[in-house]
Structure formats: structure tokens, C-alpha cells
């Protein structure tokens, strides 16, 4: 992997893994190796689980399945490259990527965008996810040694031509100040919400459980807030989401559940519970682990006003209805991400084309 500074003079030929066709081949190869249960990757998954107990094998496998199915298919990559009219040859620039670690390999989509565009990626990993993405890169570069220069893992960002950074509110403020002189794409935390009208089927509510519980609710796409109609009957929702009660077998999740349960009791806060999630009425979009907020809307106009007020912080809406101006998704698909499903709806590919 690359250890030198930015090289903006070299033009890559469309041979091996160093042209657009070759880069697609390398990505498809990675997908095949993941499907074949690469032994080293399985070992890294186990190691990551012990370093970060949120990264269970179920969760890393869920992330890998999404990467393989939606990111690393030849036809999808070729269509995507055509959509953005990516050239066969480019003059590569260096793009810094500062990754989050809230869920396994959440930064892989950014890395894929930079690589497919033909640019070098200088990657600063999160302390919470330091091993999985380097292993994916290792698999690719072992199969295609000629692409090694595309990837460099760093602790600092000394030299780059553009930057992509994700983080919480405080880190985003720092990034916007520090990287203001460079082309930058900086994302803060947003949250997934669901809108119910009381006519949802049992299957809808069961699928909503996926949107709430997958990745322990730590994904920015996961549902952390539900908007409900007046006089809503909580029983079907609590019964349907109880299907995911094995989540409390995770010690960290169970500790958070117990802590919040105690907090609500001590502070006389009204809540609804089913043994694996607690629902509490709150206007905030962000909820604590093992809890979910809900808010009652009076009518459609009131709902529209509530959503518009929170629009800058809403990642996506899970509902049977369509809401103009928002990313709409069906029940159970909050964390199903395809190539065009950019975090915060910020088009990384267009940013790279326009900035470099």
C-alpha cells in the first residue's frame, strides 16, 4: 500500500487493476472472496468482535452481505460507472477519508467511490473499526498487486487534494474549520425515523424491528424515533418487535437496557416496554441505546410540520407513505444500502467529479 505523498502527474492505463475496467475487476474479485469465506477475513471478524463487542459476527456478516450484494456486483458497478460517465483513464489525486466506526465497515462506501473514480485513498480509521476495512483492502491488493498505490492507512492527514469526513457534532465543527481551504465533503450525524398511521400489517411492524435493532440501532440509518397517530395502540408494535428479544443476550445492550430502565423508574418517566426495547415520548430524534422515542401527530398537517422542523437531521423515513423532500424507504430496509444510497444524501461521486 502507498506510503508516499500525493502524485498528481501519473496517468493510469486501463490495464490490470489500474483502469476503470481493472478497478471493477478488483472489486468484483473482492466480492467473490468474501462469498468464499476468506479465512483471514473470518479471523479478523473474530478479532474485531473481541475488540469491539458491538461488532458481533451477525453484524459484521450483515454488513458484508450488503457490501457483496449491493456494492460488488459487476453489472451494478458497470452501470454506476456509466451513470457518472467515469473515464477509462484519469490523473489520480489523493482523497483523505476520515471514517466513523459506529457500525462495521461503514466507511467502505466512501473508499469504493474514491477507488472506482481512479483516485488514491488516504484513510484514517476509527478506533472502533480498525481491522475489517484493511483486511478487505488486503484481499484486493493480494489479488491485484498493481492497485496497492491506491490505498494508504494513516494516523494523520498531512497531504491530500480533497477530504471526506464523517463524525459527531463536535468533530464536524473541527473538520469544517481545519479543512475549510480544501475541497471537502463533511457529514454530521443524522437519524432514521418511522411514520406509522395505525394501519400497518403485522409483517410491516415485524420488519420495522429490523430498522430498530439491526446493528443495535447504532447506524445513522436505524430508526431512533417513531411518529404515531392519536390513540395509537402500542400492543401490536411491542408484540411484533419482541421477536428480536435475543438482542438482550448481548451484555453491552443489556447493560444499556437496565441502565435506562432504572433511569426511567427513578425519574418517574412513563415508558412502554417489551423486554428488549423501551419507548418513551420525546421530541428528540436521537434516543439512547435500547430505547426509542415516539411523538404523536394530530393530523397530516401537524405531521408535515413536525417532519419539516426536523428535516436537516433526518437521514431517512421508514413508512408505507411517501414524503416529499426526504429519503423514503420501506419497512425493513433502513440499513439496506445500494451504490446510490449516499449517507446524508450527499453524492460522493459528484463531489469527486466536481472537485478533482
How would you portray this structure in words?
The protein has 356 residues and is α/β, with parallel strands linked by helices. It has two domains: 20-189, Aldehyde Dehydrogenase, Chain A, domain 1, CATH 3.40.605.10; 191-329, Aldehyde Dehydrogenase, Chain A, domain 2. Helices cover 39% and strands 15% of the residues. It has helices spanning 20-35, 39-51, 57-71, 74-83, 108-116, 132-143, 169-178, 202-213, 234-241, 251-266, 300-310, 348-355; strands at residues 94-98, 120-124, 151-153, 162-166, 184-187, 191-195, 223-228, 272-273, 278-281, 291-296, 314-318, 328-329. The strands form two sheets. Strands 8-9-10-7-6-11-12 form a seven-stranded mixed β-sheet, sandwiched between helices. A five-stranded parallel β-sheet has the order 3-2-1-4-5, with helices on both faces. Strand 6 (191-195), helix 8 and strand 7 form a beta-alpha-beta unit. The radius of gyration is 21 Å and the shape is globular. The protein starts with 19 loop residues before the first helix and ends with a helix. 40% of the residues are buried. Mean pLDDT is 94; it is low at 3-16.
Amino acid at each position: 500500500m502507498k506510503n508516499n505523498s500525493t502524485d498528481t502527474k501519473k496517468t493510469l492505463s486501463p490495464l490490470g487493476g489500474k483502469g476503470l475496467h481493472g478497478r471493477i475487476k478488483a472489486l468484483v474479485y473482492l466480492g467473490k472472496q468474501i462469498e468464499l469465506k476468506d479465512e483471514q477475513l473470518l479471523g479478523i471478524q473474530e478479532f474485531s468482535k473481541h475488540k469491539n463487542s458491538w461488532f458481533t459476527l451477525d453484524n459484521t456478516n450483515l454488513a458484508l452481505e450488503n457490501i457483496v450484494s449491493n456494492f460488488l456486483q459487476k453489472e451494478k458497478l458497470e452501470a454506476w460507472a456509466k451513470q457518472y460517465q467515469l473515464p477509462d483513464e484519469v490523473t489520480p489525486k489523493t482523497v483523505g477519508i476520515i471514517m466513523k466506526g459506529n457500525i462495521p465497515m461503514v466507511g467502505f462506501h466512501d473508499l469504493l467511490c474514491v477507488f472506482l473514480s481512479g483516485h488514491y485513498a488516504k484513510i484514517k480509521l476509527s478506533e472502533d473499526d480498525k481491522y475489517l476495512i484493511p483486511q478487505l483492502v488486503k484481499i484486493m491488493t493480494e489479488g491485484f498487486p498493481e492497485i496497492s498505490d491506491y490505498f494508504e492507512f494513516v494516523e494523520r492527514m498531512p497531504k491530500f487534494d480533497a477530504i471526506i469526513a464523517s463524525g459527531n457534532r463536535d468533530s464536524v465543527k473541527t473538520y469544517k474549520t481545519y479543512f475549510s481551504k480544501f475541497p471537502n465533503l463533511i457529514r454530521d450525524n443524522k437519524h432514521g425515523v418511522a411514520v406509522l398511521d395505525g394501519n400497518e400489517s403485522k409483517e410491516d411492524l415485524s420488519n420495522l424491528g429490523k430498522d430498530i435493532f439491526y446493528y443495535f440501532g447504532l447506524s445513522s440509518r436505524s430508526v431512533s424515533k417513531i411518529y404515531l397517530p392519536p390513540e395509537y395502540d402500542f400492543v401490536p408494535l411491542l408484540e411484533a418487535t419482541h421477536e428480536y428479544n435475543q438482542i438482550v443476550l448481548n451484555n453491552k445492550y443489556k447493560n444499556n437496557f437496565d441502565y435506562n430502565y432504572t433511569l426511567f423508574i427513578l425519574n418517574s418517566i412513563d415508558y412502554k416496554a417489551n423486554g428488549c426495547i423501551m419507548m418513551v415520548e420525546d421530541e428528540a430524534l436521537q434516543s439512547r441505546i435500547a430505547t426509542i422515542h415516539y411523538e404523536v401527530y394530530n393530523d397530516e398537517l401537524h405531521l408535515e410540520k413536525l417532519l419539516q422542523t426536523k428535516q436537516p437531521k433526518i437521514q431517512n423515513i421508514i413508512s408505507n407513505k411517501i414524503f416529499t423532500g426526504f429519503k423514503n424507504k420501506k419497512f425493513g430496509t433502513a440499513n439496506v444500502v445500494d451504490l446510490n444510497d449516499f449517507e446524508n444524501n450527499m453524492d460522493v461521486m459528484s463531489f469527486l467529479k466536481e472537485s478533482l
